[in-house]
């Protein structure tokens, strides 16, 4: 069986859903397409992003305890080099913690890191070798 290369839903465990929803709305400008007392879902370009109260996520998965945030990172790529610092400033103003100022990595481009209010790490990046197409998807190897 060949399995399609795709992610349908990516869900982060959060401690305070109201704080998290406010951060993603004020920081990234994202609006939930569904929310209740435990979870918020955002329609993304090709998948759904969710934030779910950590305890409810642990209960649903039957995990004794989910690993701490920060054991992975997510990335938000921007189409223009100058947008990296501006997006990071907006996220910090919305409640993110600055982890690494934007700078130029050895492989090129510009990147910096912030953590959302629950400690989930976000790389904000511009990479000239990874263009963003009209649908808003990062495309490798073009």
Write the layout of secondary structure elements.
Layout: E1 9-14, H1 17-28, E2 34-35, E3 39-43, E4 48-53, H2 54-61, E5 73-77, H3 83-93, E6 97-103, E7 110-115, E8 121-126
Parallel strand pairs: 1-4, 5-8
Antiparallel strand pairs: 2-3, 3-4, 6-7, 7-8
Helix pairs in contact: 1-3
Question: How does this model look, in words?
Answer:
The protein has one domain: 2,3-Dihydroxybiphenyl 1,2-Dioxygenase, domain 1, CATH 3.10.180. It has helices spanning 17-28, 54-61, 83-93; strands at residues 9-14, 34-35, 39-43, 48-53, 73-77, 97-103, 110-115, 121-126. The strands form 2 sheets. Strands 1-4-3-2 form a 4-stranded mixed β-sheet. The model has no long low-confidence stretch (mean pLDDT 94). With 142 residues, the protein is an alpha/beta fold.
* CATH superfamily membership: 2,3-Dihydroxybiphenyl 1,2-Dioxygenase, domain 1
When the domains are counted, the total is 1
**Largest beta-sheet characterization:** 4 strands, mixed
| Order of the strands making up the biggest sheet | 1-4-3-2
CATH class: Alpha Beta
Tally of contiguous helical segments: 3
CA-based gyration radius: 16 Å
What percentage of the residues does DSSP assign to strands (E)?
A: 25-35%
- Please count the beta strands (DSSP E, at least 2 residues each): 8
- CATH architecture label name: Roll
Q: Shape from CA axes?
A: globular
First-residue to last-residue Cα separation? 28 Å
Low-confidence stretches: none
Helix proportion of residues, in percent?
A: 10-25%
């Amino acid at each position: 069986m060949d399995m399609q290369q795709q992610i349908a839903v990516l869900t982060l465990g959060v401690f305070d859903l109201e704080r998290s929803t406010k951060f993603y709305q004020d920081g990234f400008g994202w609006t939930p397409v569904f929310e209740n007392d435990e979870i918020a879902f955002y329609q993304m370009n090709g998948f759904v992003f969710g934030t779910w109260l950590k305890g409810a996520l642990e209960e649903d998965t039957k995990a004794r305890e989910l690993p701490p945030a920060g054991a992975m990172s997510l990335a938000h790529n921007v189409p223009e080099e100058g947008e990296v610092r501006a997006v990071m400033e907006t996220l910090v103003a919305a409640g993110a913690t600055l982890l690494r100022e934007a700078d130029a990595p050895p492989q090129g481009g510009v990147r910096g890191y912030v953590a959302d209010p629950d400690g989930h790490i976000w790389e904000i990046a511009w990479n000239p070798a990874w263009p963003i197409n009209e649908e808003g998807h990062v495309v490798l190897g073009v």
